[in-house]
TrEMBL record:
<keyword id="KW-0457">Lysine biosynthesis</keyword>
<protein>
    <recommendedName>
        <fullName>4-hydroxy-tetrahydrodipicolinate reductase</fullName>
        <ecNumber>1.17.1.8</ecNumber>
    </recommendedName>
</protein>
<dbReference type="GO" id="GO:0008839">
    <property type="term" value="F:4-hydroxy-tetrahydrodipicolinate reductase"/>
</dbReference>
<comment type="pathway">
    <text>Amino-acid biosynthesis; L-lysine biosynthesis via DAP pathway; (S)-tetrahydrodipicolinate from L-aspartate: step 4/4.</text>
</comment>
<dbReference type="GO" id="GO:0009089">
    <property type="term" value="P:lysine biosynthetic process via diaminopimelate"/>
</dbReference>
<dbReference type="InterPro" id="IPR000846">
    <property type="entry name" value="DapB_N"/>
</dbReference>
<keyword id="KW-0220">Diaminopimelate biosynthesis</keyword>
<dbReference type="Pfam" id="PF01113">
    <property type="entry name" value="DapB_N"/>
</dbReference>
<dbReference type="InterPro" id="IPR023940">
    <property type="entry name" value="DHDPR_bac"/>
</dbReference>
<keyword id="KW-0520">NAD</keyword>
<keyword id="KW-0521">NADP</keyword>
<feature type="domain" description="Dihydrodipicolinate reductase C-terminal">
    <location>
        <begin position="143"/>
        <end position="273"/>
    </location>
</feature>
<comment type="similarity">
    <text>Belongs to the DapB family.</text>
</comment>
<keyword id="KW-0028">Amino-acid biosynthesis</keyword>
<dbReference type="InterPro" id="IPR036291">
    <property type="entry name" value="NAD(P)-bd_dom_sf"/>
</dbReference>
<dbReference type="Pfam" id="PF05173">
    <property type="entry name" value="DapB_C"/>
</dbReference>
<dbReference type="InterPro" id="IPR022663">
    <property type="entry name" value="DapB_C"/>
</dbReference>
Amino acid sequence: MITTDPSSRTGPSDPSADVDLRPRLIVAGATGRLGTALVAEAARLGFPIVGGIGRTPSTIASVRGDGTIPILPLSGLPTLLGQGQVYLSAMTPEAEIAALPQVAQAGLPAVVATTGIGDEGNHVVRCAARTIPIVVEANFSIGAQLLFRLLRALGPLPAEYDLSLTEVHRREKRDHPSATAVAVAEALAASGVERWEEAQGRRTPGTLEIASVRAGDSPGTHTVLIAGPHESLRVEHQAFGRAAFAGGMLASARWLAATPARPPGVYGLADVLASRGARP
């Protein structure tokens, strides 16, 4: 997953007049778990949705009860690109790799929550970011961003202290460890974590041990354990529902649609939250 350093960004801050901006949205992956939550949260907050992308063409009822939202196959994306203002995606990696170049060609800013996209997907994101601004994030919940901030502030730990992470997600989630878990490892770099490894028994000094659990329908729980000879400390983030991620994506959409336009590039949710007035 591509990560960004918020401190390297010098883009314009949000003028207060843009706080109530609600751009017209395209929701890719609209019938998936996160996509469904995103459509519901967008409708609740008054964002217009021009259409969605799904595996099977259909329509879904507007949560506000004022009509239906067309769901098109990926081949129908060009039709929606001519109507929307911001593209939001929670598709599979394969679909994202095919869709994002089209979004860039149309000139629409993008919010991408797809994880596990690998080297090919990261290359596609970087190429698209040459022409459009893209907010890419391992975890779009505000709580996860606070977790990263806390972990960056830890600083070096005594040599006899170990760091471990347990991440729990729904049983169908394919990638492991999760993109959020990898982001946790990156946030812990200042604490002396040189690399991470999946839990296999005997641990290697200076590494973050990651245990991945796939069970039930958990939206995501990440627990960091700092353990020493006589004590331990736990720091945990738990998403109660996928609306937590949808809120961060919608805040990003509002931020991308603000005036003046964001320069092309790869941004993170931290960039959005650092701007004045950033909220869903």
